[in-house]
Amino acid sequence: MKKVILLIMLLTGTSFLARTHASTKQQVRDSIFQAAAAIPNDSIRCAFLRDAFQQYIGQESATEYLDSAIELSHRKKIHTEELWALFDYCRQYEYLTDIINQQKRLLILKDASYQYKDYAFYYTMWVSVLQARCALGDTEYAIMQAQEMKDEAIRLKYTKGTFIAALALAQAYDFAGRYDEAIETYTHALKEYPTANENALLMIHGGLAKLYRKQKKYPQAISEYQKQFDVLTSVSKGLPLSDTFKTTFLEIETSLCKIYMDIEDKEKLIQHLKRAEEYYDDNIYLGAYINYHSLWGAYYKLDKEWDKCFRELDLALAACRGNDPFNENDLLKEKADAFMQTGQYKDAANLYKIATIRSDSLNQDMLQRHEEAHQANYKIRKALLEKEELTKRYRYIQLCAGSVILLILIFAIVRAYYIRRQLRHAEEETRKALDKIEAADKMKERFLHNITYEIRIPLNTVVGFSELLSSENDLTEEEIEEYSVAVKSNSAKLLRLINNILDLSRLEAGMMRFNVQECDVVQLCREAGMIVDMETPGIVKSTFNTELEMLQVEVDSKWFLKLLTSLITVPYDYKGEKREVEYTLSQENKNLKIMIQHSPLYQCWEDEQEQHILHNINRLYVETFKGCYQIEKQGEEKIVSITYPIS
C-alpha cells in the first residue's frame, strides 16, 4: 500500500513539475514578446527577436521569435534584417544537423537574396550546406555545386561570390581526397583575390596547411600555419583575447604539434605544447579539448612519463566517448601502444581488440555511407543528364519557334517599311505639288502687286500722250515729235520695268531657273565693263581692279553680268555729267568679294521705283546662292559690297 501511495505522489509531483516548467517557458515567451513590442525602432526590434532566437535555439518558442522577426522585417521592408533572419533559420537546421530542411530554407534565402540583390548571406550558407554534404560523403555533389556556384556568381557579376565558390570547391576537393586540385584551387584563389579579408585568409592558409600535412609536405605545412598565425595576430592586436581567438590560436598550435609529433621533434613539440597551454581554458570547444589532451599524452609517451600519459589520454577518451568515434578509436590504439611499452600486454590486447572491433564497425558504416553517397551521386548525375537533355530539347523548340516568329516579324517589318516608303513618296509628291501651287500663287500675287504699283506712272504717260496724238488734230510737228519721243521712251521703260518685275517676282517666289556653270569671274568682270562702255560711250568710265589672273566660280554668267552692269551703268535716259565707276575683285577664303565705288544705281538714279526693283533683284540673286549683298556707307558715299561663294 505504501508503495502505491509513494508511486501516486511521485507521478503527481512529476506532473506538477512539468506544468510548472511549461508555465515558466510560457512566461518567458510572453515577456520576450512584450519587451519586443515596447521597442519603438523596427530594426532594433527585429535584432532583439533574432537574439532571443539564438539564446533559446532548440526550443519551440525560438522558431516563433524568428518567424516574428521575418514577418516584421518583410512588412517594414528592412531587407538586411529579413536576410539575417532567413540566414538564422538555416543555421537552426545546421545546429540540428537537419540537412534536408537546411537546403529547403536555403532556397527561400536564395529567393530573397535575388530579390534584394544582396548575395552574401546566401553564398555563406550555401558553403555551409556543401560542407555538410561533404561530411556525409557526397563529395561529387559538392564539387558540382561549387562549380555551379562559381558560374552563378559570374552571371550575377558578384565578385565575392566567385571567391567563396573557389573556397567551397577547394574544400570539396579536400574531402574527396583530390589534394593537388585542392591546393591548386586555394593558391589560385589567393592570386586572383589578393584583397581577401582576414577570415578568408585564415581559412585558405589553414586549408593549405592541412593539405600539405596530409601529403607529408611538412615544411610547406609549417609555413602555412605560420602565415595563419600572423594573420590572426594582426586581427587580434589591440583587442581582448576572446574565446574565439583563444580557440583559433589553440588549433594552430595543436596542428603544429601534430607535425612535430609525426617527425618526432620532441623539442619543437614541447615548445608548441607550452604555447598551446597559454590559450587553453575550460570554454574551448570539444575538438580542441580532445586534440590538446591527446597531444600531451603523446608527448608524455615519447618522454616515457606513463602516469601523465595515461591521465591525458583518459581525459581525451572521456571527451570522445559518444561524440567522435574515429578519434576515440585512434586514442584507444595510442593507449594500447603505451600499454605495450610498459609491459601491460593483457590490457594492451584488450584495447587492441576493442579498437579492432570498433574499427570494423566504423569502416562498415563508412562503406555503407560511401555506397549511399555513390548511389546518390549516380542519381544526381542521371537527373542532371536528363535535365540537360530536356534543356537541349526545350532550347531546340525555342530556337525553331523563335526562328518562325523572327521570319514573320521580318516579313511584317519589310512589308510595313515598303508601305511606309510608298506613303512617304506619295506624301512628298503631294507636298511638292502643293509647294509649286503655293509658289505660283505667291508669284502671281507679287507680280500683280508689283506691276500694279510700279507701272502705273509710265503706263499713264504712254496712254495720255497716245490719246493726245490720236485726238488732237491741231498739234504742231514739234509737239507731235515730242509726244512720240515720250511715248517711245516710256514704252521702253515700261518694257524694262515689266521684265524686272517678272524677274523680281520669280526670285521672291523661289521659281527662278539658273544655268550654273564654272566660269572665270575675272573675265566676266572685264566683259561687264566693256558692255557698259559700249552702251554708254563717253558717259561712264569704268575701272576694274584685281590682283587675280583667273578665278573659276560656279555662276550663271548671264545673271552675273546683269548684276554687275546694273551697278556700273547709268539709267537709260541719263543726261547728266560723266560718271566714273571703280570696282575691285578679290578672294577671301572660300568667297569672292566685289567692291563697287561710285555706283550710279545709288548716286544718280532718279526713278526710285526702278532703283528699288533693281536693288531687290540684285540682293535676292546673291542671297539665292548663299552670298551677301550690302550697302556700306563711308561718309556720304555708298559702297556696294558683294560676297559670293566660290563653290
From TrEMBL:
Main EC class the enzyme belongs to: transferase
Domain Histidine kinase, first and last residues per copy: 450-647
Gene3D superfamilies: 1.10.287.130, Tetratricopeptide repeat domain
Molecular function in Gene Ontology: phosphorelay sensor kinase activity
Catalyzed reactions: ATP + protein L-histidine = ADP + protein N-phospho-L-histidine
TPR repeat residues: 163-196
SMART domains (alphabetical): HisKA, TPR
CDD domains, alphabetized: HisKA (cd00082)
Signal sequence coordinates: 1-17
Lipid biosynthesis found in the keyword field: no
Keyword Secreted: no
Stored InterPro entries: His_kinase_dom, HisK_dim/P_dom, HisK_dim/P_sf, Sensor_HK_Regulatory, TPR-like_helical_dom_sf, TPR_rpt
Keywords, in A-Z order: Kinase, Membrane, Signal, TPR repeat, Transferase, Transmembrane, Transmembrane helix, Two-component regulatory system
TM region positions: 396-418
UniProt-listed Enzyme Commission number(s): 2.7.13.3
Name the UniProt record assigns to this protein: histidine kinase
